[in-house]
Amino acid sequence: MKKLISTALISFCSMVSIAQITVSLPVERMIYQRNNSNQAYLHITGNFTAEYDSIMAKVFPRVVGQGTEGTWQTIDYRDDKPYFYGKYLANGGWYKLGIKAYKDGVEIDSVGRERVGIGEVFVVAGQSNASGITDYVDPSVGSYPTGIGYDSNDDRSNVMHFSNGYNTYDLLPIGFSQMNASDVANDTLFIGPFQSAPWCWGKVSEYLIDSLNVPVLFYGAAFGGTKVQWWKESANSEPLTSPSFFVEEQYDHPYGALAIVMRMYSGLTGIRSVLWHQGEADHGTASGTYQSYLEQVIAKTREHSELSNLTWMVARASRAVTTAANVITGQQNTIDNDPHVFNGPETDNITDGSNTYRSDNIHMDTDAGIIEHANYWVNYLTNGFLSSSTPYLAADLIEPSFTCNIGTPSTPITLTAPGSYAGHAWSNRDNTDSEARGEFGNCCTSHTVLPGANYQRLNWGYDSTSSITVAPGRYALNVRKATSEKILFSPIIDLTSLTLPTNPSFTASATQVRPGDTLTLTGSNCNGTYLWSTTDTGSPLLLTPASTASYTLACKTLHCLSNSTATTEVVVSSCFSDPLSLTGSVNTAEAPYQSQQTIESVQMVNQPTGDIEYTASKSVLLNPGFKAENGALFKASISDCP
Fold first, then answer.
1. List of residues 6+ apart from 410 with CB closer than 8 A
2. How far apart are alpha carbons 35 and 40 in whole angstroms?
3. Are the CB atoms for 223 and 40 separated by under 8 Å?
4. 388 neighbors 481 (Cβ within 8 angstroms)
5. DSSP conformation class of 205
6. Which of 255, 228, 484 has the alpha carbon at shortest distance from 331?
7. Which residues contact 551 (CB under 8 A, 6 or more apart)?
8. What is the largest CA-CA distance in the chain?
């Protein structure tokens, strides 16, 4: 059994990418809850610094047999949004994720994630036999407190390595780590957003992976030494009744961390079930009271997750030296009264009357006790529960609209939330180390930890309106729904290097052309792509207009479009109001030249297909140099043209 030092400061470093596309979700080691058909959508979003037509994605099993290789699928097409977002349906497994961008059928860039998964996501809640113990001090490492339990050597075991005892939403990161202390700083393992010991959950994770062959993610929201009454009261925002000194009402203890998972993280990854192990502190609680309190907690999680049939698995647990039948009855009645609450393990049976499993006859803190506790959970989780329960899948991201404000170069960006929500929170930066540091303290120990280097740790304090008009930068949005306060997230919108377009101009080779003649439009002063009113791009633009038309030109940078130029009309007609002086060659049958004044020509009408007609109101002069070869046709006449 490992005793894990639980004080750590993990440095954060910014990753600078020179790629043309970058991916922000999924983050590394993100696990999406699968449905009961063994499938889920990966939600994929990112940013780009070059034009693309489409984004494609594909999953590759990291190890043969640990998933199903997918096919390259288009997940998004270029639109007016300054980010890409799409979904990829895949089977349960542990994958490398490939993402490619294409322009005109050519791959322009590829990025990806080394580890993402579709599997099972659980939330742990309850008291110390759910949260684990960090009260002991290991003399071999000095005075640091240690977190007791087994971590996991399986690459597919995952947690959020972070603990925030103050339940402050603005501090919470988005990121995940292997459930292995050697994979995080100072051999320390947390199970975020609240717990600070691996306890039995590393073994539960490994056993589930062996049985199910899919990756597993645990969220930790349990709080040692807590009564079900305090859970009910904090869930309902009621004053706590005589709480222990370490249960602090102002931090929403003990329900606050479970609320965080329900409102925030469940929408990002989805969840299978809440795993509840609590009762040791409630020997004096009547069975009906216990049932009422627990049912209110369950109801709140369903309200906060907006899932009316959110699954719970409730352990039958009460042993604190002795057992309490009233607690077990309250737990069993809760299970029997709700089709979406399932029997959990009967852990009071983990005892032999000595300290084999419990050193203090309360906590399953020995090697044998932790392993047996894990076995009990796995037996219930794999014995028909998964096929009988309804999982909650990840929610769609919200997609802010984007407007480029050409006339205000200091604040050229407007981002607007879609729909109507009770609250908005915008981010324009990451939390500093001091802002991001998670802190946790219980009756006997305290811990600090920074999010991992690959975690997102956005600061949400920039603005609280539904729309922002801002300078170039990196922005993100989360919104809160009314009543439930469920949080939905937007993609990260990286407009740090936004370039505003210049105001272009253009010239036309003529203001009147005959049908079939070529018109040349030549643009200038554009720092991006010339975009003509014809939808053509580039300069010069060669056209053969069929009828009189007006033309404008705009300049397009990656995300913004300039105002259009003034309109230039080009008349398509053979009848010119001005005199004509004609040069060059006539090689085919051309539209006639007509003038309301005079025509002078020194053209060469070539054989065998040259064919031209000149008509003028006053005179037609075929000057020296004019030539019609043998077999070529020309005609000159005096008459008016319309």
1. 471
2. 6
3. no
4. no
5. H
6. 228
7. 506, 508, 521, 532, 533, 534, 567, 568, 569, 570
8. 125
pLDDT digits (tens, 9 = 90+) for 604-641: 999 999 999 999 999 999 999 999 999 999 999 999 99
d(CA 390, CA 311): 7
Specify whether the CB–CB gap between 96 and 62 falls below 8 A.
Answer: yes
CA separation for the pair 346, 349 (Å, rounded):
6
Euclidean distance between CA atoms 248 and 252, whole angstroms: 7
CA gap 245, 606 in Å, rounded: 105
Does residue 516 come out as left (phi exceeding 0), alpha (psi in the -120 to 50 range) or beta? Answer: left
Nearest residue to 220 via CA among 178, 255, 248, 192? 192
**386 compared with 407, residue with greater pLDDT:** 386
Please check the confidence at residue 18 and state whether its pLDDT lies above 80: no
Question: How far is 91 from 37, CA to CA, in rounded Å?
Answer: 8
H-type alpha helices, 87-146: 128-131
Q: Phi and psi of 319, rounded to 5°? A: -65, 115
User: What is d(CA 408, CA 515) in angstroms, rounded to the nearest whole number?
Assistant: 43
DSSP string, 595-618: ESSEEEE--EE-TTT-EEEEEESS
Per-residue pLDDT band at 444 (split at 50, 70, 90): low
The neighbour count for residue 557, using CB atoms within 10 Å, is 18
In the chain, DSSP finds a helix count (H) and a strand count (E) of 10, 45
Q: At what angle do helices 287-305 and 325-336 cross, to 10 degrees?
A: 40
CB-based burial label for 596 (10 Å; 0-12, 13-18, 19+) = middle
Residue 209 phi, psi dihedral angles, 5° rounding: -60, -45
Alpha helices in 44-198 (DSSP H): 128-131
**Contacting residues for 248 by C-beta, under 8 A, at least 6 apart:** none
Mean per-residue pLDDT over the chain, rounded: 92
Q: How far apart are CA 264 and CA 487, in angstroms?
A: 5
DSSP three-state, residue 211: helix
Tell me the per-residue pLDDT of 117-153, one tens digit each, with 9 for 90 and over.
999 999 999 999 999 887 555 555 544 456 788 889 9
What is the Cβ-side half-sphere exposure of residue 531, based on CA atoms within 13 angstroms?
17
Asked whether 260 and 478 are in contact (CB, 8 A), the reply is: no
Peptide bond into 173 cis (omega under 30): no
**CB under 8 Å to 10, separation ≥6 — which residues?**
184, 185, 449, 450, 451, 452, 453
Block residue for tokens 């077990």: 328
Reported residue count of the chain is 642
Is the link from the previous residue into 345 a cis peptide, with omega within 30 of 0? Answer: no
